[in-house]
Amino acid sequence: xxxxxxxxxxxxxxxxxxxxxxxxxxxxxxxxxxxxxxxxxxxxxxxxxxxxxxxxxxxxxxxxxxxxxxxxxxxxxxxxxxxxxxxxxxxxxxxxxxxxxxxxxxxxxxxxxxxxxxxxxxxxxxxxxxxxxxxxxxxxxxxxxxxxxxxxxxxxxxxxxxxxxxxxxxxxxxxxxxxxxxxxxxxxxxxxxxxxxxxxxxxxxxxxxxxxxxxxxxxxxxxxxxxxxxxxxxxxxxxxxxxxxxxxxxxxxxxxxxxxxxxxxxxxxxxxxxxxxxxxxxxxxxxxxxxxxxxxxxxxxxxxxxxxxxxxxxxxxxxxxxxxxxxxxxxxxxxxxxxxxxxxxxxxxxxxxxxxxxxxxxxxxxxxxxxxxxxxxxxxxxxx
Amino acid sequence: xxxxxxxxxxxxxxxxxxxxxxxxxxxxxxxxxxxxxxxxxxxxxxxxxxxxxxxxxxxxxxxxxxxxxxxxxxxxxxxxxxxxxxxxxxxxxxxxxxxxxxxxxxxxxxxxxxxxxxxxxxxxxxxxxxxxxxxxxxxxxxxxxxxxxxxxxxxxxxxxxxxxxxxxxxxxxxxxxxxxxxxxxxxxxxxxxxxxxxxxxxxxxxxxxxxxxxxxxxxxxxxxxxxxxxxxxxxxxxxxxxxxxxxxxxxxxxxxxxxxxxxxxxxxxxxxxxxxxxxxxxxxxxxxxxxxxxxxxxxxxxxxxxxxxxxxxxxxxxxxxxxxxxxxxxxxxxxxxxxxxxxxxxxxxxxxxxxxxxxxxxxxxxxxxxxxxxxxxxxxxxxx
Lengths: 384, 384
Hints:
2 copies of one chain form a homodimer.
Chain A: H1 5-9, H2 14-27, E1 33-34, H3 46-57, H4 70-84, E2 93-96, H5 98-110, E3 116-121, H6 125-133, E4 137-142, H7 153-159, E5 164-170, H8 182-194, E6 198-202, E7 225-229, E8 242-245, H9 251-261, H10 267-276, H11 279-306, E9 319-323, H12 331-342, E10 344-345, E11 347-348, E12 360-364, H13 369-383
Parallel strand pairs in A: 1-10, 3-4, 3-5, 5-6, 6-7
Antiparallel strand pairs in A: 2-8, 7-8, 9-12, 11-12
Helix pairs in contact in A: 3-10, 4-10, 5-6, 5-9, 7-8, 11-13
């Protein structure tokens, strides 16, 4: 029986096949070091968990409004004031089931079939698939170390075509952890605005920037859609909670789409997130962030020593994106070899686009430092 | 700036405006009886809540696999064996963020732009909007009391056109609570199968059938997509958890779509749901179901007495769908009058389609019996 063409076009995460195989090997007794998964290894901090428990005990098990608990929307708005000095109306905050829910709403609200959204290649694979879902088209723009693997205003202007309606950037990006400078982002915004297009900025790794304190694109203006998540810095992956700052004119559309597409984000997660945003919890989260930074600082020079060419030192997230050309095999082949021979799971670049994808791999430093050092020893032995 | 056409086409729930107004009136001190909301008033039963708390304490805060916790998939499969005598492979179970997640996956996997899905009018409004999301077309078939407000094999055959690719039925249906007979559903399945189409059966209210023990459409064959939810009978609305039984050939597509569109359903909800499916918990849930039945049995004759024409006695769910022609005003006007003058919130039929929609309203018996009786007294006074 016939299925939708999009079901053929949308690709599985290649990393899932690696993960499945790694788990089989583990089940067979093999010790596997997981550096493939884009999920922090830390459990959700206790105050957040306790807030979730308190919410369940209090009987908060019904739906919330589609745009989220009013108190959480207000707390997220206040967070932009405290953290970034940007004044955001609580009414602009849409609480979503993960950043995934926000991407779904944004694509559904903005883009008609055949319309184009520019995005960096390499980039987070789901972005192009959300575009595909609504029959719009993600146009991947090849980027490399010369632009920090990010779009620039010049690239946006050059690639904007008659059917282009928007630009999506992730700051910092996945798989590279690289930032766009404030100046460049403002210039991109100006290019997009001049063309009456939409700018979507994914800031889900924005709190995980180690050597800088970048501004949020929320400060660029109310016309920018800002997507964020409680999954990464806030360590709440399995709770499935994110948010979006919505341009005021889009709010009625986003509200009705949220009502229809998911009703509301999970209630217990929304109550727990209220505590995630407090100064006390953020002090705990900053400790985890410091640990992530230590891992990066150990991993990065070691990878270079082993011949993995990380061409721009990642500034944030928990990834190193490395050129593996010098090993004389394609990324998928190398990833397989490291899994089989070293028991180290990593992600081939082919999960992130097509531009030089099979020359790159992504290491996620989402396992503890001792394990990362062990992984490096094993990789060295295999590649020697 | 231009937005997507679908953002204009997708309608808000009209009930949301009523709900917002009702809340304003409550905030101003008015006593409002809520019979508009499609959500049970009961809190999640204690054993399920305790299982959620235990999962949080155990640190189950990370992502699960995209198709769900293996133990939950197995438990859901086993439930079909115990409850319906149907043997389901656990591998066919996809755990989703609510039935909404299942509808999203089904529409995304099956239907290309311009293709048609037949569904009953009146029906659950989100169904047509999920079709719209992926640029497919929901073709609403007018149904009335003569077919129990359900599609029939004859209607399917008559309305099947060159672009039709599937049929979605809800059994029992919302807003009417009416069942399709096993014979009729088998005949619909045969019509769909003969045309190489897809049959999707929404069984989210299937455990809330009061005077019969209908068979699940899961028994019709592996080619039928069955959608269900932990929200209604299992009283877990705010947890956002549902599931879908997937035809084996579709599993790879559904898996990669789930990975890309929502990563996984909420983890704590999945652990709690394991306890929701046990015999002990179902005994508690059956007590709530008995209470819903008492409400229906009180509401139904009283509505008739007041002049609301409920043309077929609802067999399940928690709704009464009534013709209000004799009151000489449109449904939205009547709903407004009952809200303002009686302090009773109900849903106009216009939320459920276009066929005679402004002649009907929906009463949800999702508030306790005493309040329902009070609502009836107030309505009687206003309409007298």
